[in-house]
Structures are given as C-alpha cells and as structure tokens.
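Students often ask what a 'structure token' actually looks like in practice. Rather than answer in the abstract, let us consider Helix-turn-helix domain-containing protein, a protein of 255 residues. Its sequence is given first.
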Amino acid sequence: MTPTAEHVADRLLLADVVSEAPVPLWVIGPEGSVVVANRAAVSFLGYRNELDLVGGPSHELLHRNRPDGTSYPPEDCPIICARGMEHQGQEWFMTRAGDPRPVHWSTRRLHDTGATVLSFTPTASDAVRHRAERRLRDAVPTSAPLRSRAALRDGLYAIIHERFADPLFSVADLATEAHVSVRSLQALFADVGRSPASEVRRIRLDFAHSMLERGHAVQTACQRSGFLDPGSFGRAFRRRFGYPPSQVRPLEASG
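Now compare that with the structural description of the same chain:
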C-alpha cells in the first residue's frame, strides 16, 4: 500500500523527535548492528555524526573493551544477551577516544522487527558507589565506640580505587561518599604525611604505569586512568616517575 502524505509526515515527525530527544537513543538490528543513533547518543560517545555509527557493530561501538583494557566478549554483554521485552542495568560505555563512562541502560525488544531499542543515561556509577560505601562501612564498624582513623583511611582508599578512573572524581566527591567533611578528609591523610588529592593522583599514575607496562598506548593509559588531557598527564607522570610515559617499556610476557 502506498503511504499517504499524512503517513509520510507522521514518519518524518517521529524521526525528528527521536533525533532531537535529550536522552541517548540507540536501535540495534537483529544482527547486532546499529540502525539508529540519535544526536544525544552521538554526542555522548564523542562521534561526529550518526554516519560514524549506523551500520557498525553495536557491541564494539558501545564497549569494545572493559575500563581496565581487557577484552569484552559479546557473549558476556548483558545488552546483547538480553531476552524478553525489557531489561536494564549498569555498564561502562566507551567513547570514540576510549574514555570509559558509567551509564544506566535499558532496552526494549521490538518483536515486529526483531530490533532492540536501547536508551542510556550517564550516572555516577551507583553500583560502584554502593560497593565503595559498603566497604567503608565494613572497615569502620558502627558499633565501635571510636572510629579508628587507620580503618577509616582504608575505607577512603577503597573508594578511591573504585572511582579513580572517572576524570570528574574529586576530593569533594570522596568526602561526600565517606560522609565526612573535606577538612576531616585532609586531616586523615595528613596523619600519614599525604593529601587526598595527591593520593588520587598517585593511584591514577600507578594504574597508568601498569597499563603502559602491559603494552597500552600512552593516550589510552591517560584516558583510562582518569586524566582529562595528555599534557597534564605527561607532566604528572614525569614528576612521579622521573621520565615521560613514552619511555615505559612493556614487560616481556612470561613463558
């Protein structure tokens, strides 16, 4: 049946609504390729336009690897493996530049076409935050009459190790998640001659160094260790280790 002018107008309107929706929307075809990526999704993932994405493999474009650089097999992907009408969860998606970003995602299967509609929103990684807060509570039992400063510091390190890859993670965020003031946070680290900011930076740099030793590129190590730009990463790395990141030699694989 030939579509009427009214039907064509409705389709164009629907396409415009999807394209301009503020929430990232992504449609995965039955074979796993990207059918639709609206502007919000394109922008969030750092691509130029939908032409960079449509027709490509959805799993690889969303999260070709995990935040630590290890491979992410499609058979382990909850989005690819989702069955039924609706699913949701927490994941890390990778931008075009390889920057990991925590998201909350939801899918709905379109049975008439076999396609899957995926929507996602950036989060503060609720799952990560809850794990870190639980470890902090475990380190400092509420039944204790006085909190052990050393145990509290251990809980703070647990949060840092969970969150350092987020470039927006700050000392203020650390204080909020630990339910202490920034001044108390600084005093806790001053006990051992350190500062919270320097410890976040040290953990980021140590992670970056280990990535370089495993053969990752400098840019990849920079992005996945929580640095916003290569310049600040390079300067901090040289101050920490005495040489630039480009001089790190990969460790030889053990036989």
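One point worth highlighting: The longest strand covers residues 100-110. Ask yourself how you might have guessed this from the sequence alone, and why that guess would often be unreliable.
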